[in-house]
Write a structure and sequence with these properties.
Blueprint: E1 11-15, H1 22-28, E2 31-32, E3 36-38, E4 54-56, E5 60-64, E6 77-81, E7 90-94, E8 97-98, E9 105-114, E10 119-127, E11 133-142, E12 149-158, E13 162-171, E14 186-194, E15 197-204, E16 210-221, E17 224-226, E18 230-234, E19 237-246, E20 252-262, H2 271-285, H3 287-305, E21 308-310, H4 313-329, H5 356-368, H6 371-383, H7 385-394, H8 418-421, H9 427-442, H10 446-466, E22 468-470, E23 475-477, H11 495-518, H12 520-529, H13 534-546, H14 583-586, H15 589-594, H16 603-609, H17 616-626, H18 638-647, H19 651-662, H20 679-693, E24 697-699, E25 702-705, E26 715-722, E27 725-732, E28 735-742, E29 746-750, E30 753-757
Helix pairs in contact: 4-19, 4-20, 5-6, 5-9, 5-20, 6-9, 6-10, 7-10, 9-10, 9-11, 10-11, 11-12, 11-13, 11-16, 16-18, 17-18, 18-19, 18-20, 19-20
Bound molecules: beta-D-glucopyranose.
Length: 758
Amino acid sequence: MIKYLEEDEWNVIEKDFHPNHQRSSESIFSIGNGRFGQRANFEETYSGDSLQGSYIAGVYYPDKTKVGWWKNGYPEYFAKVLNSVNWIGVNVWVNGEEVDLAKAEVIYFERKLNMKHGLLQRNCTVKLENGMQVTLVTERFCSMANDDLAALKYTVSTDQDAEVRIESYLDADVSNEDTNWDEKFWVEGETNSFDSGLSLSCATKKTDYHVGVAMVSELSVAHQLLDVSEEEFAQMKVTERFQTQVKANQQVELTKFICLVNSMNVPKADVLNEAEKGAGQAHTLGYDSLKSAHESAWESIWETSDIVIEGDVAAQQGIRFNIFHLNQTYSGKDDRLNIGPKGFTGEKYGGSTYWDTEAYCIPFYLGTHDSAIARQLLVYRFKQLDKAIENAEKLGFKNGAALYPMVTMTGEECHNEWEITFEEIHRNGAITFAIYNYVRFTNDKSYLAEYGLDVLMGISRFWAQRVNWSEAKGAYVMLGVTGPNEYENNVNNNWYTNYIARWCLKYTLKVIIELKENDPDAYAEKVAKYQFNEKEETLLWADILEKMYLPQMEGSEVFLQQDGFLDKEQLNVADLAKEDRPINQKWSWDRILRSIFIKQADVLQGMYFFAHHFTDEQVEANFDFYEPKTVHESSLSPCIHVILASRINRQEKAYELYLRTSRLDLDDYNHEAYQGLHITAMAGTWMAVVEGFGGMKVEGHQLALSPSLPKQWDAFNFRVNFRGSAVRVNVTKDGTNLSLETGQALTVLLHGKQVEVY
Ligand code: BGC
């Protein structure tokens, strides 16, 4: 745990400059608007350790696969989210010396992420080698009201009369740290000067996305506008320079209006022109009105997605931090986009889609946004069904079996470690679960007839071919898989994978029966489209689900993570020395694989998904066995344990793990915030409060709640959507109060009792 940030309910604050944590701060203070986003790099030159990061949703580069030893079936490329045009660039010289926080003496420093209004602010005073004290006050935002726009204000003052030079620039000559072949991913387009500013365009190699960015820079001294003294057009970079003499404490204020468009939304030939138009309009509107539209957009988001925790500032800040980042990563406005595990905060995971979306993000969007957004995320996978079938074919499966990729931009598999690409096949299960979850939450059964069954059939066909009959066991087994716990590879009979595969078959059979009855034409169409041999295929599925092998500890309720799990040295995390943590940074890979330590919820992930299949006693037995062995080195893990711990009344454990999930990045538990934030796990934090402490689930056709208030809190409240209505759940020491915020009255199960909410 690394703690250097202040606790506050609505803000993240860094007091005093921490250059050794600069990369982490750049991640934590990132801002974005669903279309593009920016790490919290300083606007001005910073020669210290830093990761430049400016990302555009969906704009990627297929970086040719590089592996030590090629294996048949490996994908051609790994999709990379691209560090793109640096639009924040501002450089400052005072009496000829450049301001650079890595070189100057930092006298005062405060950086603030205002989460209520989506603003990144900084206030600092530095002493240059020439003796001048310079104060910088900066603010910037990526507009939530108009997702082509961003703006920043950059104010400089000095303690003595001085000559100040300021540059405002756009720079497309940028690179990724994460590149397989040390290549640059961008090619030059045009540079231009228009009415009020400068612009440039560039394009990605191979994928040929065109990006246009325009800036209008306005500089004033004592409220008097100053003319640009020089413009420079370099290859992939445009710069405007200003020069002025200032008096001591006089403010030089630069306002920069940015418009950033790309060819996913604008014809390639028009990107420059459209960006110029947008920046010009932003300039005409002015900083204050752009900012107030942006702030109002954030206020509306908070109205539906805020969670209020009273009496515990660290917990409150944690949940807001998570909700804030999720909303600025994925707005649901574009059905081609999905949610990368790092969002706009770093290069790791390539900005691609993982099972994280279905297992973690969909519940968040179902609970807090219009259900059309969760539906759109499901349709995203439906549209990639052909590719999933192709992926499976490449691995030798046939007859329309679909294996969704572990990592993807376009539906094609991008991951290239065999133990994950070929073996972490449980992702198919989460995609199925998400369809089921969406339907039970929204009651939108039309989804199954329209898109859902197609995906279910492809996935069920895959499972039916992936298992094999074991004579020795007299059961179907699944060999050579990797479960959610990636600290085990190539195992046989991972309980979670076998269980979810079996459930997928069962659910598909149920949907088939229902659709046949309710919409025979739609069903007949699917049979024809997929040449579905109903009798033969469903008989096989029924046989598999009846005879699937599920490893269990003899004489106990504990399900075994995989065959041979008990052969391992039976240790607990408490037996590990502090210096050994996190083990993924301290131990060799083979040592990790042989050890008992579990990266993330695996058996327990299954018990979370299928809560209603298991008794509290079963959950207790498995929780007590697995939690002490889990190192939670995947961000996706602690939230699941919070939910199960709450269910079995382990309040202290639930609270401890809640802090871990909600403050994972703020307190850098896993020492990796420098790589970017754990955006998809943030949805898990929401689940931890709503499904954990709130005890929310769907029982039959009803919303059910069984809240329990952690003793560290005075009260908490959240809002949750259910089948067209929105219910506010307010939990205090005196009990739970439910009120209807929108939609029709509904009956809710509260601690097992029917309650009318109107
Ligand atoms: C986890 C995976 C997850 C990925 C992206 C990995 O560390 O083990 O389950 O999908 O991160 O979040």
